[in-house]
Design a protein that fits this description.
The chain is an alpha+beta fold. The chain folds into two domains: about 90 residues, no CATH class; about 110 residues, no CATH class. The chain contains six helices and ten strands, in the order αββββαααββββββαα. A hairpin with a 2-residue loop joins strand 9 and strand 10. The longest helix is centred in the C-terminal third of the chain and has 39 residues. The two termini are about 25 Å apart. About 5% of the residues have low confidence.
């Protein structure tokens, strides 16, 4: 290999190592550190609203209203995504049963029935502590009020950097997602590994260049691009000379 080619290849490898360490590695590290694992916690829930998306009973919308936030979820009913929430409400005596409660939520109807329902203030349902459930005319939502939700003492939520719900728990019981502790730890670990290996490669290249230049001018040894193990060998051989 000609000297000029050796220098070009060496500089190219140094640039690649620098990009790997200080661009890719740092981005992975920053992304890992940005993963939120500490949920925001509320001790009081003002209201929980339930309504079907566009009167499509396959999609159940749920809105938790708290002091300074509104947490909106959507559950795909055929897959039973709503079961954890409704089972918890039943356990706490807030609703009689998931099946009976779902029947109280307005479904698709003709214009006359829709208008009549929108005029209602409340719908009476049977259930422990759930005597009256309000209907919001603008979305025909069935709502559980604050007085009915006294047994719900904890609502925890983590949102990702795009605003989507990453973790949701009610009364310390997970409704969806996870705190992503393992994912955060793994991402941070990978970030550090990439930075360390990229940094070592960047550090070893100048030593390798020095040794090869020395061998070229003292022994006539031709230039070559070493693999990473040879780079380590050259680095330690430098201290023996």
């Amino acid at each position: 290999m000609k000297p000029i080619s050796f220098f070009v290849y060496s500089l190219m490898y140094m640039v690649i190592a620098g990009v790997v360490a200080f661009v890719m590695g740092l981005r992975i590290l920053e992304a890992g550190k940005a993963i939120e694992t500490s949920p925001k916690k509320y001790t009081e829930i003002e209201k929980i609203n339930f309504w079907y998306y566009g009167f499509d009973t396959n999609y159940l919308n749920v809105s938790f209203e708290v002091f300074d936030d509104k947490i909106n979820c959507q559950y795909f009913v055929p897959d039973g995504e709503q079961n954890k929430l409704l089972a918890l409400l039943q356990t706490e005596g807030i609703i009689a049963s998931p099946e009976a409660f779902l029947q109280t939520i307005p479904k698709a109807m003709d214009g006359a029935k829709h208008q009549a329902l929108s005029a209602l203030k409340t719908i009476e349902v049977e259930g422990n502590g759930a005597k009256f459930i309000k209907v919001k005319p603008e979305i025909n939502a069935v709502s559980l009020e604050k007085e009915q939700l006294k047994k719900l003492h904890s609502l925890e939520i983590i949102r990702n950097d795009q605003g989507y719900i990453q973790f949701l728990a009610l009364n310390e019981k997970t409704l969806s997602g996870s705190k992503a502790v393992l994912r955060k730890t793994f991402a941070i670990g990978i970030g550090y590994v990439v930075i360390i290996f990229g940094g070592l490669a960047l550090l070893l290249m100048p030593f390798n260049m020095y040794i090869q230049l020395k061998d070229y001018y003292t022994k006539g040894t031709p230039f070559y691009i070493p693999n990473r193990w040879q780079s380590f060998k050259n680095f330690f051989n430098m201290f023996k000379r």
